[in-house]
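Structure ticket #2291
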Amino acid sequence: MGGEGKKVKLAAIGDLHVREGDEGKWRNFFKQVSEEADILLICGDLTDKGLLSEASILAKDLEECKIPVIAVLGNHDCELNLEDEIKKILHNDHVFLLDGESIKVKGIGFAGIKGFGGGFGKYMLPLWGEKMNKQYVQEAVNNALKLDQALTRLTAEKKVVVLHYAPIPETLAGEHEQLYPFLGSGRLEDPINQRQVLAVFHGHAHSGTLEGNTSYGVKVFNVSAKVLKKAGLNKPYFLYEI
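Resolution: structure written out below.
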């Protein structure tokens, strides 16, 4: 999808947590964002309990969105192991759910994946010990590898990453530090640093902090809906221009 050479406005939000009974709740949101942005990013937890009925409610409201939507799933969307069905319900000609895939829209390359936990720096869980611990850490490793592969496939000069879990601890500030291993993984930071990414958007940490940077200076934004509200933005989404 073309559009090279022009400034593009990205709107970003995470953690919609659409519930049964929320019919119509997000319609005005999608109308507004369609008028003020060129692309909408939704950073996981699209549904609250991972129910297909919740996904159907969101899909109906998304009909009001007239701009491309790039989204990833969150942990809540995986609660009932219905991820594939949720993707099918939400996917259409302008809604793209990424899970280790990449796409080019309006000249910008997007790589998206849910991500996983595991911690950061010297407190990152190592790949050793009990079988279940190894499986947990391997999931984080696999997500980082899939992100790296998605970024490698992108030919766009400008690259953006869409996640649910955080790739750095800075945007988790405000959460209890004991929760950090369950809110993100430093393994996600490596491909972001190495593949010349412009910006990263994630959710998941409802009590976190809006903005941080990777060790290479890549901008990272926690756009969880509650974080945006806490930051006092004058819009219910975060706007970023590329």
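Closing remark: Helices lie at 27-36, 52-61, 83-90, 131-153, 180-183, 189-194, 225-230.
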